[in-house]
Amino acid sequence: MDIQIKKSYRGLKAINGPLIFVKAVPDVSFGELAEIQLEDGTTKLAIVIDITKEITVLQLYGNTAGINPTTTQVKFLQKNFEIGVSKQMLGRVFDGLGRPIDGIRMPDAEEIRDINGFPLNPVARSYPHDFIQTGISAIDVMNTLVRGQKLPIFSSAGLPHNQLAAQLAAQAKSKSGNPFAVVFAAMGIRHDDATFFIESFKETGALNNTALFLNYADDPAIERLVTPRAALTLAEYLAFEKDMDVLVILTDMTAYAESLREIAAARNEVPSRKGFPGYMYSDLSTIYERAGRVKGKEGSVTQVPILTMPGDDITHPVPDLTGFITEGQIVLDRIMHGQNFAPPINLMPSLSRLMKDAIGEGLTREDHPKLFMQLYASYARSIEMKAIAAIVSEEEMSDTDRLYLKFGREFERKFINQGFNVNRSIEESLNLAWEILSIFPKSELTNIGTKELIRYYKGKDED
Predict the structure, then answer these.
(1) Which of 44, 77, 110 is the last residue of a domain?
(2) Alpha helices, DSSP H only, in 107-220?
(3) What's the number of domains the chain is made of?
(4) What is the per-residue DSSP string for 89-126?
(5) Residues 347 and 413 in one domain
(6) Cα-flanking dihedrals φ and ψ of residue 294, to 5°?
(7) Euclidean distance between the first and the last CA atom of the chain, given in angstroms as a whole number
(8) Digits of tens for pLDDT over the chain (463 positions)?
(9) Are strands 328-332 and 210-216 parallel, antiparallel or unpaired?
(10) Domain region containing 424
(11) How far apart are CA 230 and CA 424, in angstroms?
(12) Is 6 helix (H, G, I), strand (E, B) or coil?
């Protein structure tokens, strides 16, 4: 980082946990970096988080060990937090601040960029379109991921969102023809989970085209707020300067939000819902809204934030606010996980609001729009029949009702319960859907047109 010293002061007014208080400093801006120089010559970084007429408050990147309030020197710098970005960062592993932790030196920076990004005029945005294939049928067919979209995964503690994240990183690819890359940012993860991701990416070969940013659970909370922004800074560079389609996976955004709450509490801010700061909505939007496409640029940034819902509560502030900002959600289900579904995606509360613009002829296949509507309608009715069968015996139900029960079982067993090591093309997923739908006679497939039935229906023709 190219640092220019702006002002230097010796002595601190107070230290409170990770917060450092110094006397009021003129011409210092919110978010500005400062360098804390200790007696032994070592330095720590801090960021300005509050400015009043009496004091300037800094949040330390790290712990306060070794800081002597009377002798410590504070140097205010002329910049916000910046990182060097380069295409050579793909295939590498970094800490939450963008420093290499894989034993190899930092690649030469092609550009130095502010991690907060650059304001983008909404008029310069292009509407997200084009299909990104994940290899997961429940997503590709039913909740299609669109190039430039932000589509979160709502999970809960104990559910296999880490395996799903690794599968997305290994299998996802763009259909646009642009070079594809993955930027993976993990916040507040355990060391064994970090090892899982690294080894998984190595085993599948995904690491060669992935940049990992890892913030551990025992790292300072303030670093957790930097990690997604550092990752997105690299993603924007690859997308808009190197014309790549970049998939950004952010896990776990709940850990990020809890760090935001921890820092707000240290500053004695008035809390909002469940103790989270009232500005959490706008803070989350500064991360999520960095996904998209830009007019005149070939590349794109697509986001898949992963968050865990405390107590499986989808109305919790983190998923609630995330749902307002993003364009749909993929919901993992605890009951399905208990039944060994892999991945345990609950299709009924899941949706992708932009998929209509990324499916159909010339994008996926001409039968996809009507097929997906028929699958939803049939699966919803199969769930209704399952509830009725729990009250009255299946033998008492009509032949048609039993067909829906059979469809529901086959759809869950073959289509949803795909496995974490299975990679299906969109054609394979659509063909499998037709195979299962062909349990029904054509008269039950009321959402599908005659042309699609003639070409793709696999069942027996009715007399």
Answers:
(1) 77
(2) 137-140, 161-171, 191-204
(3) 3
(4) GTT-EEETTS-B-SSSPPPPPSEEEETT-----GGGEE
(5) no
(6) -120, 135
(7) 75
(8) 444 445 788 888 888 878 888 888 888 888 889 998 888 888 888 989 888 888 888 888 877 777 888 888 899 887 888 999 999 999 999 999 999 999 999 999 999 999 998 777 888 999 988 999 999 999 999 999 999 999 999 999 999 999 999 999 999 999 888 999 999 999 999 999 999 999 999 999 999 999 999 999 998 888 999 999 999 999 999 999 999 999 999 999 999 999 999 888 877 888 888 999 999 999 999 999 999 999 999 999 999 999 999 999 999 999 999 999 999 999 999 999 999 999 999 999 999 999 999 999 999 999 999 999 999 999 999 999 999 998 988 888 999 999 999 999 999 999 999 999 899 999 999 999 999 999 999 999 999 999 999 999 988 765 4
(9) unpaired
(10) 368-456
(11) 32
(12) strand
Residues 375 and 343 in one domain: no
- Three-class secondary structure of residue 70 per DSSP: coil
319 and 402, same domain (yes or no): no
**71 & 87 share domain:** no
